[in-house]
Amino acid sequence: MPQEDGIKDKETLIIQSARKRFAYYGFSKVTMDEIAGDVNMGKASLYYYFPTKEDLFKAVISQELNELQKNIELILQQPSSASDKLKSYTEKRMEFFKKLLNLGTLSVHVYNDTKSLFKNIFLDFADVELNIIKKIIEEGKQKKEFNAELSDDTAVVFLHILQGLRCNLLRWSKGQNIDDEAQENLQKEMIIATEIFIYGIKNK
Amino acid sequence: MPQEDGIKDKETLIIQSARKRFAYYGFSKVTMDEIAGDVNMGKASLYYYFPTKEDLFKAVISQELNELQKNIELILQQPSSASDKLKSYTEKRMEFFKKLLNLGTLSVHVYNDTKSLFKNIFLDFADVELNIIKKIIEEGKQKKEFNAELSDDTAVVFLHILQGLRCNLLRWSKGQNIDDEAQENLQKEMIIATEIFIYGIKNK
User: Fold this and answer.
1) Backbone dihedral angles phi then psi of residue A146, each to the nearest 5 degrees
2) Which DSSP string do the residues of B56-106 spell out, in sequence order?
3) Quick check: B64 pLDDT over 80?
4) Whose CA is closest to B174, among B103, B119, B97, B112?
5) CA pair distance B106, B176, nearest whole angstrom
6) Does pLDDT of A69 surpass 80?
7) How far apart, in Å, are the Cα atoms of A99 and each of A32, A39, A48?
8) d(CA A144, CA B158)
9) Orientation angle between helical segments B154-172 and B119-142, nearest 10 degrees
């Protein structure tokens, strides 16, 4: 049994190792043995921290989401226009999902299975995102860059459009992971949707 | 065995009866016996036309989609602006899905299950929809109502936004059918998204 002291450090080490391996080999090809080896730990000790590979994966995703949160919160501090901030937000979000894809996670299962382990993590994160989009839109209204009459639901609709474009692609993807071409196509659609949306909420 | 003569008529009768029953009681509560009774047919004869209740349901949905197609093709003939045509399209589409909801079909299963019987029907229908949206946008460009520089993907993005908003709602709905409140909320989002989209592609 590992000692209580330094548990956080050990956890961090394990997550770092898992993250590297998932990114390189993809989730399904990595074994708990390999990760235990990376951190000089017995398999039993590793299971003390993370009872299953899925739990470890959840921890990796949570960490990625923490980084995404820091990244998108930084956007708010930028000296750019609210329009450019919304564009930056879409870009950071797309980069994040591209990274997830590299971790070997972007399967229909992960996103669409109602029993998905990851659902609650993403559900909680949606509140973080929504909060930031609201702030950007509010700023745009105050600067008279965006239409002052915009519905309170504008931020929700914007987030749901981005979430929806991905959801829709996965829905048609016949249970397979989406390939690079589909991923690029999705990014193109998100950029077009963001541009049209911004143009649609601007003050004329 | 039914005679070959009048097979179409019998089929039409069966579909009509099934449609009424599904609309009133919902898919799961209707039995093949009841439908056979409605059309004065033995159960064996009914199974000759539709081997399973799912097959019959598919036929009902196909018929609904045919009507939707006629409805949205009529939009093209209206003397209204391209913007109003796009709004009409969104409305007709929402009405259709509301009707489907009443038929008791709008479950996560139907939409998100990769093995769903209905997937191919909707996939084929997406081409019909896309074609109509393209025509409306083209018309708007020619009348200088819409920006002439719009990307060729504008129509696809618009369709995917509408599809995506529904997909996204179903994804979070925890495997349950969506209730009236969620349905109304979705319609509100679709209307806001359509208005912002139209404003975003208009000539300034």
Assistant:
1) -105, 155
2) HHHHHHHHHHHHHHHHHHHHHHSSS-HHHHHHHHHHHHHHHHHHHHHTT--
3) yes
4) B112
5) 9
6) yes
7) 21, 23, 28
8) 27
9) 140
| Under 8 Å between Cβ of A194 and A86 | yes
Residue A113, classed as helix, strand or coil, is coil
Kindly determine whether residue A115 and residue B166, on different chains, have CB atoms separated by under 8 Å. Answer: no
Angle at A144 between CA A140 and CA A148, to 5 degrees: 80
Structure-block tokens of residue A67 = 């980084």
Contacts of A78 (CB under 8 A, 6+ apart): A84, A85, A88
CA distance A151 to chain B (A): 8
Give the integer Cα–Cα distance in Å for A96 and A55. Answer: 20
Closest CA to B100 of B141, B68, B145: B68
Alpha carbon distances (Å) from B5 to B8, B56, B153: 8, 20, 47
In this structure, the number of other CB atoms found within 10 A of the CB of residue B145 comes to 17
Q: Kindly report the nearest CA distance between residue A113 and chain B, in angstroms.
A: 8
Classified as helix, coil or strand, B202 is strand
- Contacts with A201 from chain B: Cβ below 8 Å: 196, 199-200
Q: How far apart are CA A101 and CA A6, in angstroms?
A: 32
- What six digits make up the tokens of A5? 């002291």
Distance (Å, rounded) from C-alpha A137 to C-alpha A89? Answer: 12
Write down the pTM of the prediction: 0.88
Residue among A119, A202, A197 at smallest CA distance from A157: A197
Spatial CB neighbours of A10, under 8 Å, sequence gap ≥ 6: A2, A39, A41, A49
Q: Is A49 within 8 Å of A14 (Cβ atoms)?
A: yes
Chain segment A166-201, per-residue pLDDT in tens? 888 877 665 556 778 888 999 999 999 999 999 999
The structure tokens listed for B51 are 């081997």
Mean pLDDT, range A67-80, rounded to an integer: 95
Please give the DSSP secondary-structure letter assigned to residue B51.
S
Q: Chain A interface residues facing chain B, Cβ-Cβ under 8 Å?
A: 108, 111-112, 114-115, 119, 123, 151, 153-154, 156-157, 160-161, 163-169, 171-175, 188-189, 192-193, 195-201, 204
Phi, psi of B146 (to 5 degrees): -105, 155
